[in-house]
Amino acid sequence: MKERIHLAQGDLTEFLVDAIVNAANNSLLGGGGVDGAIHRQAGPELLTECRSLGGCETGDAKITKGYSLPALHVIHAVGPVYRGGHSGEAQKLASCYKRCFEVAAQNGLKSLAFPSISTGAYGYPINEACEIALRTSLAQLKRFPQIERTIFVTFSGRDLLIYAKQLAEL
Ligand code: AR6
Description:
The protein is of the alpha/beta class. The protein has helices spanning 33-42, 44-51, 89-106, 126-143, 157-169, and strands at 5-9, 19-24, 61-65, 73-78, 111-114, 149-154.
């Protein structure tokens, strides 16, 4: 399964894959961080489609087209705000990744690129979030052999090293 996981450092909005995953909020109407970057690159049609979706629960994900992005689609996932770790955050974050794979499979997608969901504005500690991201994704890749390529894209070199270390240890 691990051979279908790749790591990269850079700007998620530049990746040419079937879908990039957005670290969105419940409104799905845009924000800062990777969400802001995705909306800027995709153009205003993305917001128009997002308005029609009626928001999204924490731990769930919804798909749109990618518009002016190189990626064909955007899967908007809503991660939990980190409140110390005893408010179901781990389960909600795992659910986010799981739902992204389910939505990707339902739409016949073969390649996905993820940001590190919840680890920016939402404050999730990177080490814990990274372990959840990798473990959940490995389990989902087992379920969905048709998903050929999953890339975890980190903004910082430090985060990339954490992903590389944890992936090697799995
Ligand atoms: N490419 C790759 N990674 C990025 C990029 C990018 N262009 N920009 C930021 N990151 P965040 P969250 C990294 O805050 O914590 C928004 O306002 C960033 O360094 O984007 O899930 C939404 O609307 C961090 O490692 O998402 C929500 O309200 C990771 O992406 C809220 O923020 C996630 O940081 C969601 O917060």
